[in-house]
Specification:
single chain; 177 residues; mainly alpha; 5 helices
């Protein structure tokens, strides 16, 4: 049982570390790309919106490095209860992170994209060009953000809550033995 929990703990740590590496790389890419787009934006509102999206990329990196880590893992000579408690804390931390994704991960770039889109719409209207393509883009990224919100807050968090519940059941059964 101890070996199984140790393996599960290390596997969870690797999964979280991999996710954080991918998200940090994406944050760097978003920051660089949107900084470039901000530089070439048609007006101040679009520039500010794109700069906010770029800053959001950096913010995600900072937030993940601060709050997204998997937490401490006990030494391999610790007891089963120590590993179970550590894994339980790791699950709790990641569930909390996923349930707050709308605030730290989605809201900042979404507001920036809305600002940038409004700036582009204003620029298109001033030039006498159609603005409906930008409205389609707004609906598209709104739908994408809603899906990402659902995937994190409902699907992924629920999956971790299930794992957490199974761990609690294992802890109760081993405590009774």
């Amino acid at each position: 049982m101890l070996t199984m929990v140790i393996d599960r703990t290390y596997k969870f740590d690797r999964k979280i570390k991999g996710r954080n590496i991918r998200e940090c790389a994406a944050g760097v890419l978003v920051a660089g790309l949107f900084a470039l787009v901000a530089w070439n934006s048609p007006n101040l509102l679009a520039r500010a919106g794109n700069a906010l999206v770029a800053a959001s990329g950096v913010w995600v990196i900072v937030y993940l490095l601060r709050f997204g880590r998997a937490g401490a893992t006990p030494a391999t000579d610790c007891s089963l209860a120590d590993f179970q408690q550590a894994l339980l804390r790791k699950y709790d931390d990641q569930i909390r992170l996923l349930k707050r994704v709308k605030f730290w991960y989605l809201l900042p770039p979404y507001v920036g994209l809305l600002m940038a889109s409004a700036g582009i719409v204003m620029a298109n209207i001033a030039k006498g060009q159609p603005y409906w393509p930008q409205l389609i883009a707004m609906v598209s990224y709104s739908a994408l953000f809603a899906v990402v919100w659902w995937l994190n807050e409902s699907f992924a968090a629920r999956k971790l809550e299930g794992r957490r519940q199974r761990l609690l059941e294992e802890m109760q059964s081993t405590a009774g033995d």
